[in-house]
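Subject: mismatched residue count in predicted assembly?

I count 1113 residues in my input, but I want to confirm that the predicted structure covers every chain. Input:
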Amino acid sequence: MGCEMETDQTEDMDVVLSSMWPEDINEAGRQFNVERPGADQDMLEEVTINKEPNIVDFKRLMELTNYSDKGNWQLANLIKNWEYKQENAVRLLREELDNLSKQQQEVELKKLEILEEHRFEQDGYGGDKRPISILDENLKYLYQDAPRRRNDVVFEDEKVEIEAEFDSVVYWKQRAVHLEKLLEASIKREQVLIEKLQESIENLERQSSPVEELSQVLKRADNFLHFVLQNAPVVIGHQDKELRYRFIFNHFPSLGEQDIIGKTDVEIFSGAGVKESQDFKREVLERGLPAKREITFETELFGSKTFLIYVEPVFSKAGETIGVNYMGMEVTDQVRKREKMAKLREEMAVQKAKETELNKTIHITEESMRAKQMLATMSHEIRSPLSGVVESGVMKLEATKFRPREVVKHVLQTAAASLQKLLTLEGNVADDVPVEVIGDVLRIRQILTNLVSNAIKFTHEGKVGINLYVVQEPSTIAKQGSQKLDRDTTKELPMSESQDDQNGRDENSTCENHKLSNGAQVEEEKETNRKTEEQVVWIRCDVYDTGIGIPENAIPTLFKKYMQVGADTARKYGGTGLGLAICKQLVELMGGHLTVSSVEHHGSTFTFVLPYKVSSISDSSDDPDELSDSDHQDVLGDGNDDDLHSGVFVFQPRTLGTLFSSQSSTRIQKLTPNSYAFNKCNGLLLEDSLSPSSNITYKETRSDEDANSAAGPMETSYELEISDNLSSAEKHEKSVPNTDLVGRFHPYVHPSNSLRAKHNVDENLETCVTYQGQAQAQARTDGISSECSSSNSPEIPKGDLKPKILLVDDNKINVMVTKSMMKQLGHNIDVVHNGAEAVRAVQSNNYHLVLMDVCMPVMDGLEATRLIRSYEETGSWDDAIKAGVDIQLPSPDSQSNSQLEKTRKRIPIIAMTANALSESADECYANGMDSFVSKPITFQNMKQCLQQYLP
Amino acid sequence: MLGLSVDRLRADMNRLLALLFHQGVLDEQFLQLQQLQDESSPNFVSEVVNIYFHESEKLLRNLRGLLVDKEFSDYKKMGIHLNQFMGSSSSIGAQRVRNVCVAFRAASEQNNRAGCLRALELLEYEYCYLKNKLHELFQIEQQRILAAGVRYPQQRQQPNNP
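Triage response: the counts match. Full output below for your records.
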């Protein structure tokens, strides 16, 4: 029964019922977390809380509390809390009461025991027994508030000390008095306790008004809310079913209560966003689901602001929505920042895209620059009809009268005009070179231009020049390649420098004296019986420079197509490497040759030697090539002759002050830019017309008339002669196609292959050696005749054995042209338009020859050839069927075996390839083709092909 | 006077042809084409060339259509068109058109859109030039034939001097 009083009981007791706020409100509500107020608390005291913004429609609040689930529930919680607290207090008081009554009982029991003891143990107790106050110390533990625990209060059993002798009367008297005192004290204590209890009960009653406590709680919560919200840019509100405000909290109120409560948004203020906000609230109300939205307001009331609005519906107990809670937070700055960020990001993205685009553009520009450059170089070198030579290996030449000095001068002048270096351009035409010769001036000029521009390209300082002089006709025949056999039989070896100039001069003078106009020279002219009359002069032309030169090992490849000395050179100097190849071919086609000698780092000299017919000239009457000459005739009367014969031209670099040297001063005056330009454009025509008149219009007439009477100047008769030849040949054979251009463009095309040579070379070789030009011309004429006869009366007898030819080409134009050519060659052809059709055609017909385009839709020529070859080898069309060709296999009885056998003979298949395309000859052969002809198809290659592959 | 005008027209034709050759607009193949014209097909050249124009305009339209579509350029198809164009151009000897086709095709093989567009423009330019000049040529020829009294060229294959 020991009573252990805890020393810290004060604090322990202090806790009891101390909080104004229900401790377990967390469990119940969880909406607020409020600090318990201590002695030093209420920090809110120091905070001024502005309560004005809080505008409440209390009636509505009551309604809400009464009718809405939430309000009800909150109220219930509060009450439950209070009840719990009170119960707890009652319980504690009761416990205390129990304790006290227990103590009282014990005390009484003790008293009885003492009395009894004294009765039976008289001697046992002496006066040394002293009374001890049991409550002395314990009183202070009794508190005015009901103690929560008064556990066991133990009274110590102490002996009463009495001084009197034991068991004496005095002793007993003393003892009785002492006990009396103890009893009194005990009673007193009991009374105190009872009072205390009374007081506690009173206290309890006094303090525990639930309403008071609740309002205190609410007030605190309210205070906290205000404290938290006082500076927040938020608006909190409640609106009823009709969206009329019933409560609003707005820290920055701009309107009074009467302006807001009971009104809707649209009634309160107007402007952008108001309607939207109201509609949004209504939507939430209708849908019954909370939602958030950002709305930008633009109102007179508070300007432009963006709010993030949260709206949740409020339900009645019956589950109906009876209003919305609304909370808005101003996020204008954030929105602005966000928009700014988005804008920045967008700008960055745009910037990046632009950058990418720019890079792409740069790339594309670089590429197109390259392409442009390539195109420019290409166009420089192949724009002119020169490429015709490369493409077809066939060309026709013109015979026109021209003045070599003029040509040299023009070429140099043109080069000087576009010169971008400090180079001296010079030309030197030997005196023995005739004033006028006959040849294909256009091409000669092109060759010369090409060589000069090449020389300029590779020369950085010094000079570039042209030397022209007459040489002895080459006596040795150089035979170069069977391809050019027919025309190149008279090709001469490079001649020695020790030309017999005198000889040349003699020839020249003879020519001039006798006014012999017709030379055998240009090969396309068919002079047959005029050996005695014609005069040929071989003129050598050196184009020299002081440039970088050509390494010795590079010289052999120099004239190959698309070859330059080295990759470095190509990079540094550009160009396609086509120019020299064309020049060489051109020179050789004209019966001459082109050579080069070079010392590296010192310069190169390109030399070509060509035969020209000598034209007779009457200086006085013959009209100069340019109109300007006649225009200036009066002024330059004297200079005219000089001009014709002076053969030295020097074009100094322009920076030296004078455009041209004094030597050529007269020339400069004459060659005004206009006249020069005119000459360039029309020179061909003028030279061509051969008319002595300076007037173009009348020239033709005169020439005609002259020809008619056969008494005109020699030039005219020369022309007549050619025409006669030509026409007679045509009359005979009717195979040389003609146009109204005959005699002007001389459309007769020279063979470039060995075909014709086969016919003629044997019988004529010797003649050629002996008689050179004439013999050559003879041979050629013969060639034409035989050719014509062969085409007109084909080797294959007409009738059943007429060869069947199949053309496979998808290009309409090509088909038309090829068909027409074949017609003229005496063949009718079948045409199909792709590989698959070709396979079908071959399957159902016996062809003797197939001309197959390579690039075609559906099935290309290579595959078609493969399939045909596969059939020829295996006798079955399986591969073709596998490849998707719709083959109709003949029934066994419809076709005889022999016929099938026959079909299986290998058909010659000739590919038609375009050089510009990546169709290689190897590929054609690899796929089973027998040969190829390059497009565009010409008479020559077609004829050759037919001769080779048709029996 | 008739003869005079015939000859003058012929001179005009020759001058024009010479110019076209000199500029590289036409090459030798055009002469091959002229050789194919005879009694049996007196208008062969202009027939072929007209078909060429017809086809080429179709091809140019297609090419432009392919290139205008910014989303997608079918370079393979473009290559097929260009092969056609190249083939027919070289068949009639339209040298410059053909050369531009070559460059165009190179650009299309590299999927170089900008290059293709440039080439297309150049091609259209060259094509128009060619067409105008050939029309001019045919017009002169027609006048000449009229002036010559419905005589076709091959009947006048006698030397220039009547």
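The mean pLDDT of chain A is 67. Marking this ticket as 'not a bug'.
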